Amino acid sequence: MYLTPQHILLAGATGLTGEHLLDRLLSEPTINRVLAPSRRPLAEHAHLDNPVGELGDLLPQLQGRVDVAFCCLGSTIKQAGSQEAFRAIDHDLVLAFAQRARELGARHLLVISALGADAKSGVFYNRVKGEMEQALIAQDWPQLTLARPSLLLGARSEFRLGEQLAAPFMRWLPGKYRGIQAAALARALWRLALEESDGVRIVESHQLRRLGR
């Protein structure tokens, strides 16, 4: 079954995937409002509501009806500065965003997690992503979609040496390990938002690539 969300809440609109998703949302004639808090101002649009500031500070101030919420937040340990700072963004802030989205009436939450997310993993990054997933599931959403992309491909505003080196190889790996274009991930997220179902859905990278064609 397909639904037509009209009021969207988006976190991470200035990120690699979030930029593509925002463009997609603002081009949809059925969407009346995209509420997209961001650290820096976004280009003005008739259907865009863009509070500017730190997301953690803005969350209590967000108002208005929300049908569907997208969380495109994500960092790296190097970018965050420490494991503690990384966890504060990729776990704590994601959960706070989800809770506020629920308070505003959202019934479907779509979150970008990561390939290999596992709360029992010995790899810190994967463990935090897995713990974030478990905590979101515990919020008991009517509909929760967890997207687990492999390495995101595309032009970032900041330079990430490891991703630059890995990208050529990630294009040729099999199945879910192959890299995925951020634009394709954004298209997949929008298609998933239009599908109405119950409970939790985990979508692996090869499925996201197929949906994003």
UniProtKB/TrEMBL annotation:
This is Oxidoreductase. It comes from Aquipseudomonas campi. The lineage of its organism: Bacteria, Pseudomonadati, Pseudomonadota, Gammaproteobacteria, Pseudomonadales.
